[in-house]
Specification:
Blueprint: E1 3-7, H1 12-16, E2 21-23, E3 27-31, E4 39-43, E5 49-55, E6 61-67, H2 74-92, E7 98-103, E8 112-117, E9 120-125, H3 128-132, H4 134-145, E10 149-152, H5 156-162, E11 170-172, E12 177-181, E13 186-190, H6 204-209, E14 218-222, H7 228-235, E15 240-245, H8 248-260, E16 266-271, H9 274-283, E17 288-293, H10 305-321, E18 323-333, H11 340-353, E19 356-364, E20 383-391
Parallel strand pairs: 1-4, 9-10, 14-15, 14-17, 15-16, 17-18
Antiparallel strand pairs: 1-3, 2-6, 4-5, 5-6, 7-8, 8-9, 10-11, 12-13, 18-20, 19-20
The structure holds S-adenosyl-L-homocysteine.
């Protein structure tokens, strides 16, 4: 029998709207001796049953809601959630074999990410409950998806917050190398070398968007990682593409992907800090028509927000200075804590300091395999904007 959690008065409201986290200070009492990672029955202050969640007394997020019902069998519960999530991806990405199959809270499975690379399934496990049930998840992927390889590629920061050991597991097969397609571009994924689970799926749809205005243009893909934006620019007929990333490993990978797709676009693969690249370009008076910026998160916590705002302002200001008249600035932020307006204000301040007039053409978030829950702003993090640039 599950232990019972009783919320304080009114603390049920946010949950009823669809938020999935219960914080430790919202709990009145607990009946039973739930261990970390156990399922608990959640009740409001009057004792009315609200659903089932995973418990973790070590985390500020004491309960992560799984369902408004009871869960008699976790295997069938997980199977249902994973199959539903996969059907959504198959609907929006017809014929693709690689995508973010399941995105944690966004797919009602708090603390679990599953990225699908053909028959290889890479997990990130960030809640005690999912950690306890990871074997069950692996069984679902073996039985229902015919997975050949299943392993984790966890980011330790998030596991520390939950009090989970800093380990990775192989549940099936091995860490093979996969070649995936995003619908038109192919990428080689070497899991041992790659960042995140192996690929940044979140910019998947946005990479297609830039194809609209890069033909015959001189393009820079700054913070290129595996080269997605630049490769789409090659496909769409760019005159030249410079790929820039501070990681030599990623630059090698971008080059490999360029070759894999048999592109002949004039290209350069530059392993360098983006700021240094921009300053060099400024010194050499080089200008580009389209510049893509996709930096790592500047705000890792709320405390670092002011510094992050300044960071986006400075980066975008300098980037604008190496853009030709009538250029396009394609700029992103993946800082969870930085809101849309804050991000845009940073870019606008940078533009005014660089004496450029911007026209916002397009603003969106992550790709459709990264759904957002209306009641849970925490499920939305990526900001992606396209600007037309004019001299003042
Ligand atoms: N645009 C990529 C994802 C970018 S992730 C895509 O579409 O797949 C951020 C990248 O920035 C990482 O590859 C990381 O190696 C790189 N990076 C981090 N700090 C950097 C810096 N100061 N200068 C250049 N690259 C940096």
């Amino acid at each position: 029998m599950n232990s019972k959690i009783f919320l304080k008065r009114h603390e049920e409201r946010r949950i009823k709207l669809g938020h999935l986290w219960i914080f430790s200070n919202e709990i009145d009492k607990i009946q039973g001796n739930a261990d970390n990672g156990d399922m608990v029955d959640v009740n409001d202050a009057r004792g009315d049953f609200m659903g089932t969640g995973f418990y973790n007394k070590n985390s500020l997020i004491s309960v992560r809601m799984l369902s408004a019902d009871s869960i008699p069998d976790f295997y069938s519960f997980a199977r249902d959630k994973i199959i539903r999530a996969d059907e959504l991806r198959k609907t929006v990405y017809k014929g693709r074999e690689a995508y973010r199959l399941l995105f944690s809270e966004s797919d009602f499975m708090p603390g679990l990410i599953i990225d699908k690379y053909n028959d290889t399934y890479v997990l990130q496990v960030y809640s005690f409950g999912m950690e306890k049930n990871a074997g069950v998840i692996a069984d679902v992927l073996k039985n229902e998806f015919k997975a050949k390889n299943i392993f984790t590629k966890n980011e330790l920061h998030f596991r520390r917050l939950e009090g989970l050991p800093e380990t990775d597991e192989i549940y099936l097969g091995e860490r093979v190398t996969e070649t995936i397609s995003d619908g038109s571009i192919r990428y080689k994924i070497e899991f041992d070398k790659a960042q995140k689970t192996g690929f940044y799926f979140d910019q998947g749809d946005n990479r297609y968007r830039i194809e609209d205005f890069v033909k015959d243009k001189h393009v820079v893909d700054a913070f290129c990682n595996s080269g997605g934006f630049g490769l789409h620019a090659c496909k769409a007929g760019a005159a030249s593409v410079k790929f820039v990333d501070s990681s030599a490993v990623e630059i090698e990978n971008a080059k490999l992907n360029y070759q894999l797709n048999s592109f002949t676009t004039e290209s350069e693969f530059i392993s360098m800090e983006v700021m240094a690249f921009i300053i060099n370009s400024l010194n050499e008076n080089k200008k580009y028509d389209v510049l893509m910026l996709d930096p790592p998160p500047f705000a890792k916590s709320k405390k670092s927000l002011p510094a992050a705002r300044k960071g986006y302002e400075k980066l975008n200001k300098l980037a604008l200075k190496i853009l030709a008249d009538d250029g396009f600035l394609v700029t992103s932020s993946c800082s969870h804590h930085l809101g849309r307006e804050d991000f845009l204000q940073g870019v606008y301040r940078g533009a005014s300091k660089a004496e450029k007039k911007l026209q916002l053409l397009y603003f969106t978030g992550a790709a459709m395999d990264h759904p957002q829950l209306p009641a849970m702003p925490e499920t939305s993090y990526l900001k992606f904007a396209i600007f037309k640039v004019n001299n003042l």
